Amino acid sequence: MTKLYIRVRETFDHVLVSACDKELLGKTLVEGDLEFTVNPEFYGGELVDTSTCVKHLKNATVANMVGKKTVKAAIKAGLVHEAAVLYIEGEPHAQWVRL
């Protein structure tokens, strides 16, 4: 069973969901001049399966996702368009804001 890290933060106006593949938590990805750290304080939270992750992403007003399994699940659920995915050191990254 695939496990992903997810952190959900709720405010009066927004639900921020950050999610990443388990094995990426704490890693720094480098692509040219770009360095992207999958920060445990931002992405690390509860370890969940993909269906639980997608459930939370569907409720998000702001979402950040990193990793092949996480982004693939969001694409499969219709939450991310493949053309909107950025790759950093071969790992997909996607984000959105719902207004």
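^ that was protein a. below is b, sequence first then the tokens
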Amino acid sequence: MLIFLIFMGCSPSKQGANEMEVTAFVGARIIDGTGADPIEEGVLLIANGKILEVGSLQDVEIPEGAQVMDVKGKVIMPSIINAHGHVGIADGLESDYSRENVIRDLQVNARYGVTTIVSLGNDEAPSSAIRNTQDTSGLDRSRLFVAGEVVTGETPEEVKAAIDRNVAMGVDFIKIRVDDNLGSGKKMPKEIYKTVIDYSHGLGYRVASHIFYLDDAKTLLKAGTDYIAHSVRDRYVDQEFIDLMKETGVYYCPTLMREVSTFVFGSEPDYFSDPFFTREVDSATIAQLQDPERMKRIASSTSAKAYRVALDTAMVNLRKLADAGVTIVMGTDSGVAGRFPGYFEHLEMEMMVDAGMTSMEVIVSSTGGSAKALKLDGVGAIQPGNWADFIVLDKDPLADIKNTRRISAVWIAGNKIEGSTAP
């Protein structure tokens, strides 16, 4: 146990092995989030909110006095990272940012096993303050990283001022939009977004870019963006784009459910009767979505029809990029009105498999691979030193990615989350 005590910052002379409050999860199949082969009959040791050791029952010694949790027959995987979400800005189908909404969204995500959210825009000061309190063994809600306000402006001075406001608020990323909303708006000019990227990099911040068009994505990559935060959706990606992605090491977030959300409520989705959905979405919101006039408007919407086509293109592009070895991170753009946090992440992972990724590839993109790409320290993989953020599942998601819904329990910083058991 000496190695464990040193890791936790405890002096062996002050705290003996038998005095540590160690919990041992014993007997599960463990998927560690790195892409390595699962550990059969695994042992996961945690203490003070962090992972001490993980390995097979034959290789890991369970400390005397440890609390033993029998998880034989279950599967443990890292909890899920949403690399592109939002928190605090929706109340039902209305937009209404508040601190209370931020906390609510983080708690909802946690119950779904989505325990880290990178919120890419519309974050205000309360979000940063909440982010600043998450490095604790007492955490009982999801972790949060923020981008602050989406940077806009028509001059270099205006965008620099917006970046300075974000820096003063204490953001983790900078976010821009380079899109014309299907021709209805004006794109940020190249000279302006180049200013954003250069100025942000000079201050030590990475830039996430909202895109739609392939040509814009290429130009942004050449300008130095760090993150392609949506799918290319106007046409199929080409070898030039693939080469740029791989040469720059930029990561790509499909946000397939973002596209789905633009047209799916033109009729009634099957999941309106899914207890895994309805347990977290109030009946009044569902009733609004079921309103016949509302559904008729969406079904006849020109933009909804265009985004339905765009989704097909996005699915093909995801397969091409994943096959080419481009780094994929899972994100949904959930958290805005009509995009349901927690639930949409499970649907996104299913769609990524439908697009042609393997279940293991999707799990890595949603856990350890995402944390590595986004440089999120201490989360994402079941490895010694990381926070003890993980999901205990009743069935194996490698056999069927839908089994990420078969939640037995969610743990964050070694704390079992109330209400996380699947209905």
